[in-house]
User: Fold Toxin-antitoxin system YwqK family antitoxin from Planktosalinus lacus.
Amino acid sequence: MQGFLNYMNYLLTFLLVLSFFTAASQNNVEDLYVKNNIEKVIIKGFEYKKGSLVKQSHLVHELDKQGKTVLFTSYDTKDSLIRQTTHTFSEDGMTEYREKKDKDGHLQHSAIVVRNKKDRSFRKVQLDAKGDTLIEQLLIRNHNMNDSILYRVIKGQRYLTHKWEVDDEGKLISKKRYHVSGSLLESDSYTYIKKGNCIITENKRKEVIAEICTEGNKEISKILQDREGYRSGIKLVYEKGGESIETKLANGLIDKIEYFSKKGKLLASIQYTYLSN
Assistant:
């Protein structure tokens, strides 16, 4: 049981860390939504195995006038409701309250997110259905917005967990992870090498950990190791030697993302549809 709780803690931490680092890019997407008068985003995912479709997902984001999601809905293949998440914002937009409910309207969990421009902080509290705190985290960035420190907050006490440093272009150049005692658990640094229309990322051991190439409106990411992940409700199987291709529309929004095996077979596809007012 303890092992399971530790795993859930790790998973929650990972998801919250991920949300902190997608916040900046999300702001850019929101700007594009506003610029293009987008009021609804429909996302459909398709997962393939041995050339056959094995899973589909159907997600809908309903947006406010600032391009923020106010209602996120997940449907099954028959368009029946699976779950919904509502997003409510304060008048100044700095505080967000989220509630995730199942198809029967029962609360699964909620979250409170507070952004503070003055001290450049981002606080997120995850609550269970009873309102008890699952995890609380605080991210603080420096004046130049290129250094971030993440704390785990337990009973009001801050515990350092991560540090990141980014360059003026927003690329990650170093990261460190700490034990709750404050001791350093691991660290890494990154170098970016431009080669033609490609950017190659190396870690401090001179290992290539990413290779992304741009061709017109397509961003092609080389898959360098076997692994699995999830996105938009489908399982992604990353096969070493394969690639993912993100295609953008003329307005800068994503049209589709496709994942291919090393033999060029389609493993997954995520397609986006935008409805304007």
Observations:
- The first strand starts at residue 38 and ends at 49.
- The domain at 1-35+80-189 is CATH 2.40.128 (Lipocalin).
